Amino acid sequence: MSLSEFTVSDVLPSDRRSSLHWVLSHARRNPWQIFGLISGATVNAALAAALPVMTGLAFSAILATPPNYTLLGWAAVGVVISQTVRAVWQLGRNGGSEVIGQRLERDARAELYASLLGKSMTFHHLRPVGEIMARATNDVHEMNLMLNPGVNLIVGSGIFLIMPLIVAPLISPQLILFPALFCVGYFFALRAYMLELNPITDRARQNFGVMNTGLAEAIEGIETVKGAAREDQEAERFERNALAYRASYVRQGEVEARFVPMLLLSVTQALGLLQSMWLFYQGQLAIQQVIAFNGLLQLFGFPTFVSLFAFSQVSLGLAGARRILELINTETELDQNPAGHATPMNGAIEFENMSFGYAAESPVLHQVSFSVRPGETVAIVGQTGAGKTTLVKLINRTYDTTTGRVRVDGVDVRDWNLETLRQQISTIEQDLFLFSRTIAENIAFGHPNATPKEIEEAARAAQAHDFIANFKDGYQTVIGERGVTLSGGQRQRLALARAFLTNPRILILDDSTSAIDSATEDEIQKAIFRAAEGRTTLLITHRLSQIRWADKIIVLKQGRIAAIGSHEELMESTEAYRRIFARYEKQKISHQ
Questions:
Q1: d(Cα 441, Cα 455) in Å, to the nearest integer?
Q2: Does residue 61 carry a pLDDT above 50?
Q3: DSSP symbol at 149
Q4: Helix (H) or strand (E) segment spanning residue 561
Q5: 414-418 long-range CB contacts below 8 Å, 24 or more apart?
Q6: CATH topology of domain 337-424+510-517+528-592
Q7: For domain 429-503, which CATH number applies: 3.30.70.3400, 3.40.50.300, 1.10.580.10, 1.10.10.10?
Q8: CA–CA dist 148, 98 (Å, integer)
Q9: Among 50-54, 305-309, 581-585, which is the least confidently predicted range?
Q10: 462 in Cβ contact with 527 (< 8 Å)
Q11: Where do you find CATH 3.40.50.300 in the chain?
């Protein structure tokens, strides 16, 4: 089992040793449907084999002198009854395979989604959203099609191959020759076909992922694309990716065009006809046996024709399963630690000789050590790229330290139950995220059981109630993804309301008031002051008013602590802080 930050308990267990084991572990949860598929395929093939035999009996009855109309009638009744039974079983077979395919798609998508929710931020930062979405939608659906019609047709065609081998010797032992040779040739030809086809279908799935990634990036960054007038270039990029995807399917078509079993089928039917006619002229076969045998050879047509489509569909489905399982089996760097420390938090924070790098050979933070008392407000300042945001993300274990320790209430954060740790820490970032849901649902995201009154109180505390009340539907107004229907200040006030509602013991504000205009700043400051009361607060900010009221200021420079102290102390003792302060002053004047 792969490590994950969080495990969704209601996801069905599966065998992840290989893509085939994984698919089978999901499929075998449907025993009655599997029985219906196999039994339906068996009955279908058996009654299909009975049809040429009864047709031969009918010819024998007509050619008899005088014609045997009784036998002819029984042959006709046999055809009607057998094909009716065959149709009923076919219904069960197709229904069973459809149920298996739909449930496989449902369970695979649920397992993938739960796995993605449990992955670390490092994993998600390294994976394009479009690529993940291609696997979660198209690849999962290919697994459905692999079962139905893919496996459904393969099981049926496999039993069709067996029937002539069983029935032909009953007509005459000599007639086993060409059916046996066809089956042997069919097996080796199909094996070679799949060996050539599998890498092509893998490449087709990969090319689809690349195409989908490019499309998702262009749509997500549409404002940037239009702002830079790059529509034509993005369209050309998409066309190149689409052509690569198309080329994979053209290559697949070329392989399918050389499908050798089609040739084997024609040769087998021709040689079988010659053999049966020769035995007829030798007096070793009756006419009804000749007709029955050549009718049996026609059964090979079904597995030959459907295998051209069915096996390529199975190959595509297994390629999709491999891609999905690769995501699920990717281990994250963090673990949920369900047996870890889980108590109400006071809010003390300590960094002890902590170093961190996204890659071990390229550290971003170096030997960082400082402590924060419960209820203390600390401002973290530094130039862009100094590591401020990375530093605070180590507290809630968005990332884990490379060396050293981060403690909360004296306990290493890695020893905390991850869910308990994060439930008591709230982070409001500059690049905040709002969901395509109602305003009330966005505010209550971290506290879904909150009452409307509690939601409104949080909104009032964040100075958001007034603009919410101006919307036609108020708190039931549905906002666009990332809050695109709101201004920057409105989005950030909703994020503040969300944080206030969860009542965290540690509050982290990562430049969270950057999009708030000067007229609103004073009101937001009051809200932040109220939110900071009684809880540990870390501020990453360029707002001088926020820096000044912090109990402690930490100055970061190139991933190291350059100085720690109050505003007055740092202005007197630290040149790096004075330069940062002077730059902020210039920015403030330029914005006035």
A1: 9
A2: yes
A3: I
A4: strand 560-565
A5: 414/337, 415/337, 415/340, 415/341, 416/337, 416/340, 416/341, 416/342, 417/336, 417/337, 417/338, 417/339, 417/340, 417/341, 417/342, 418/5, 418/6, 418/334, 418/335, 418/336, 418/337, 418/340
A6: Rossmann fold (3.40.50)
A7: 3.40.50.300
A8: 6
A9: 581-585
A10: yes
A11: 337-424+510-517+528-592, 429-503
Residue 131 has pLDDT above 90, yes or no: no
Question: What is the pTM assigned to this prediction?
Answer: 0.72
Dump pLDDT digits (tens) for 305-344.
888 788 888 888 888 899 899 888 887 767 778 888 999 9
Amino acid of residue 338: P
Q: What is the pLDDT of residue 30?
A: 92
pLDDT tens readout for residues 337-379: 888 899 999 999 999 999 998 776 778 999 999 999 999 999 9
Phi, psi of 409 (to 5 degrees): 55, 35
Q: Where in the chain is the domain with CATH 1.20.1560.10?
A: 19-329
Let me know the angle formed at the C-alpha of 122 by 230 and 448, rounded to the nearest 5 degrees.
95
Query: Locate tokens 């205009």: which residue?
Result: 517
Structure tokens given for 392:
């605070």
pLDDT at residue number 1 = 42
Instruction: Give pLDDT tens digits for 404-449.
Output: 999 999 999 999 998 899 889 988 877 677 888 899 999 998 888 8
What the block records as the tokens of 32 is 């009655």
Q: Which top CATH class is 19-329?
A: mainly alpha
Give the sheet arrangement for strand 403-408, strand by strand.
365-372, 349-356, 403-408, 411-412
DSSP run (H or E) holding 370:
strand 365-372
Smallest CA-to-CA distance from 134 within 114, 109, 157, 101 is with 109
Helix (H) or strand (E) holding 430: none
